[in-house]
Amino acid sequence: MSEEPKLSDVLKDRREKLGRIRDAGIEPFPHEFSAREEIAAVRAEHEGLAPGAETDSRHRVAGRIAARRGHGKNAFIDLRDGSGQIQLHAREDLLGPEAYALLVDLDIGDIVGVEGTAMATRRGGELSLAIDHWRLLAKSLRPPPDKVHGLQDTETRFRRRELDLIANEESRRIVQVRARTITEIRRFLDEHGFVEVETPVLQPLYGGALARPFTTHHNQLDRDFYLRIATELYLKRLIVGGLDRVYELGKDFRNEGVSHKHNPEFTMLEWYEAYADYEGTAHYLERMVAHVAERVLGTTKVRRDEVEIDFAPPWRRITLRQAILERSGVDIAEHPTREALAQAMGTEPDPGEGWGKLVDGLLSRDVEPGLIQPTFIVDYPVELSPLAKAHRSEPGVVERWEAFVGGIEIANSYSELNDPDEQRRRFEQQAAEIARGDDEAQPYDEVFVEALEQGMPPTAGAGLGIDRLVMMLTGAQSLREVLLFPAMRS
């Protein structure tokens, strides 16, 4: 058995071919190939063509050579564009000896444009184009990934996404699902009267979430700015200004670890509605996700780890206290201090961990992994929710929910705190947590408090992690599968 050629030999051979192409007077990198059709549209037009049938229907397509078969005066070439793949039937008598010889000498990965008539092969009835004209559009100077096994190495797939997309159909499918998911989310919110807005990514003071920010410096202003960790505080200022239904879909940044469900740069949807509460946002979320699944996948049911998940509403609802009690045996209401709760958990907390952080740890450790079907965990301790409104009937908690699917949190919401004096007091509590050493606590934002002093109507807001939702819709096991260029360790 002969050894595979060395990469250096392959690169040399391809550059030599490039030289021969130029010597033949052919421009290997022309400017355009206009008026082409997508391969998927050509396939749709001739669906059901009988084996051996020939047509007079001419088509002009372009794409990357994925495979080549045949010899002598006939060759079959698989051509792939962003929409699909089609077989080309190349014949010396149709193309002429010179053009045919140049075509069959091309490499896998070269990009060509062709013209020809639709036909179906006698054996198998595969739709093909009998081409009578072709043009080189880009010479590939490096070989594509293995055409049989695809690109398997995960490090290479995520660092060199262009190679992953060339080689792996599943990666291309995920990109399409993600794009359609975002389109359908926008459609849903637009049809329900929400206005899409844009707020600053560079912020003089970060806020709206409990997270560490990225810091940057503006040279001319000679001051530090922060990449936003959330859009919340700006969007609520727009509610104060009279925009009763707003949403923003864009990038947030959090200076946190990298894992299968975390990336420092991620896509979030936040929406806010005046005169609503957290029950209203829960109904919106379950209806929106079911709508997206139906429009993108054709069903509300998806399979994940051999389990069928159904996004159809209504989703299960359970209080945070009850969920922790069921999963861990700890009743957080009976351990209202940091020391008592730590003792019940059998742990020694870090100096920067307050009572709320310990509760959040119980949720993450004992409850979250078991929440496979869509579930709302509702009514959180005020210590975990400095921007949420106090519960109307349950002391010590706020009107907040988090939504979980597949063991991962995908969304967060609350009835928004609109009492400026209470908000100021909550910010002061967070300042004490910062002094304790909690670098994820919410900093004091006086401008936001002054905006609330103008008067903000009863309001509900929610944030949905787009990357995590796409994970659930596609069955991806890691956030890196649904991000085109995820952050990677060096």
Short description:
It contains 16 helices and 18 strands. The chain has 490 residues and is α+β, with helices and mostly antiparallel strands. The chain has 2 domains: 132 residues, Nucleic acid-binding proteins (OB fold (Dihydrolipoamide Acetyltransferase, E2P)); 259 residues, BirA Bifunctional Protein, domain 2 (2-Layer Sandwich), CATH 3.30.930.
Structure commentary:
The protein has 490 residues and is of the alpha+beta class. It has two domains: 7-138, OB fold (Dihydrolipoamide Acetyltransferase, E2P); 167-315 and 373-482, BirA Bifunctional Protein, domain 2. It is 34% helix and 27% strand. It has an eight-stranded mixed β-sheet with strand order 6-10-11-18-17-16-15-14, sandwiched between helices. The longest helix has 23 residues, at 169-191. The mean pLDDT is 94.
CATH architecture designation of the largest domain: 2-Layer Sandwich
Q: Give the count of helical stretches.
A: 16
Q: Name the CATH homologous superfamily of the largest domain.
A: Bira Bifunctional Protein, Domain 2
Helix percentage: 25-40%
Helix-strand category: alpha+beta
CATH topology of the largest domain: BirA Bifunctional Protein, domain 2
- Indicate the CATH class of the largest domain: Alpha Beta
Order of adjacent strands in the largest pleated sheet: 6-10-11-18-17-16-15-14
Shape: elongated
> Residue-averaged pLDDT, rounded?
94
Return the domain count.
2
| Biggest sheet descriptor | 8 strands, mixed
The unreliable regions are: none
Task: From the alpha carbons, calculate the radius of gyration and give it in angstroms.
Answer: 29 Å
C-alpha end-to-end distance:
38 Å
Count of strand segments: 18
β content, as a range? Answer: 25-35%
